[in-house]
Prior knowledge:
By secondary structure, the chain is mainly α. It has helices spanning 22-27, 31-60, 70-104, 113-132, 153-156, 161-189, 202-234, 245-279, 286-300, 315-327, 329-343, 352-375, 377-383, 387-417, 423-449, 465-495, 533-540; strands at 6-7, 552-553.
Amino acid sequence: MATTVQVLPKPKAYDDTFWKPITLWLTTTDHKLIGIMYMVTGLLSFIIGGIFALIIRLQLAQPNLSVVDHETYNQLISAHGVTMIFFFVTIFLTGIANYMVPIMIGARDMAFPRVNLLGFWLIPVSILLYYGGFFTGGALNAGWTGYAPLTEKAYQGHSLGVDFWALSIIVWAISGIMASTNFLTTIVALRAPGMKLTRLPLFVWAQISTSILLLIVGAPLAAAMILVEFDRQLGTQFFTTQGRPVLYQHLFWFFGHPEVYIMILPGFGMISEIIPVFARKPIFGYISMVAALFGIVFLSMTVWAHHMFTVGMNTWVEGFFMLMTMLIAVPTGIKFFNWIATAWWGSIEFTVPMKFVFGFLATFLIGGITGIYLASVPVDTQLHQSYYVVAHLHYVLFGGSVFTIFAGLYYWFPKITGRMLNRTLGEWNFWTLFVGFNGTFLIMHTLGLEGMPRRIATYANPAWAANNAIITVSSFLIAFSVLLFFINIIRSWYGGEIAGNDPWKGNTLEWATTSPPPPYNFAKVPPVRSFMPLRDLREAGEDPYEPAPVPAQV
């Protein structure tokens, strides 16, 4: 009997992804498309949060201005924090991990594709819930932390802004817990043959530590929001002035300080991937880098009350948290020295991603040093309500998150789209961002030391006017830098230089497939012999792009 063999057509790559029907984006379970949707959502939130920041800076440019009234200012300052922390940085980093982690470990997709899709679609729900407050009598006006009892009905009346905020954060936490579970399961269960734990890329290790952290601290955050709603809707007394307002601070900051590292650890992972590629050297101290990640995870859950040194805790409690806060500099310092040692005597290529890496190292270092000062109880008592804290926060979060996000985007954009970002626009993007950032936040340290209070809609002291004017101008320079970035993204996506599969001569598996990757990621997963499998293949003279036999249907 004759046998008929039908050769199946090769699956089409994602050259025309953005022209596919909208239903594909709504229903896809492909981790790469979901990752792109996370990233686009994060970048849109970045624009919204940035607009809020510019309005705030216009209000503070000179003494006694009335660009917005005080109530609107409080809503804007709250919305800026919520948007940047919950809807931009965390969401964007989840997206880039969604795209890269399965490819970096040689997997076809995430372990739970439908859970992955559901986790993403909870994010627009969370965002819409929060911004719904602006249309229902006023959004949250108690700061992004939502301190009790300012969120209680006695202070808020019948405005629904606080309720929308609390529900939004609950949905956000559920999404984060789902994503974290999915990441951990994927990494444990779906690694390529030969990829032992000691051969995982450091970005994957960073995602493991981030996921563990979010699993631990996400539930207390959701619980705090539920109790806020109980107080407001059921008349309970958890956080009222008759209850325990400080209890809310403990619950919030048990999440809030680890959240700093949830936003920073993925960036650490990206830096650990980028420096070896452009220094042409293996990462220095691979095992110590992994150990430092988990040291940070542990210590980050022992320092939350350093945000509360002014609430009247016992002296020995303050001393404990002061000591633990200083200790967390040790694992971070290990990572810094290892990054420097990796670059030391390397054949460094000063590409745009590498410039953002050095921008991160400079700015985050300043944030870490000012953090050591604020870890001291006497110093923090004096500076707690000043702009010194605002400056420190942004050097840590903007320096530790935004600079690393730009570095990662310039590094992985060729893999995601198959095209290179424009180098000239990238250089302008970096230098305008670096100058604008330091012009905005470095001077805030001086204002803080001079006593300018944060969270206040205006000021009368003319001595602060010049510095505030410089800060406002510099903040618009940041906005110009971000505009250049978006111009670069749009131009390059549709007309950029063709990148090829491995434009940087990378070390990890994502560079062993096409750019952009096909739906199945790999026709054939290359062998993994170390934590730099692609470098191993190049040195052995092997071809990582050898196609697998096409399946036949008999």
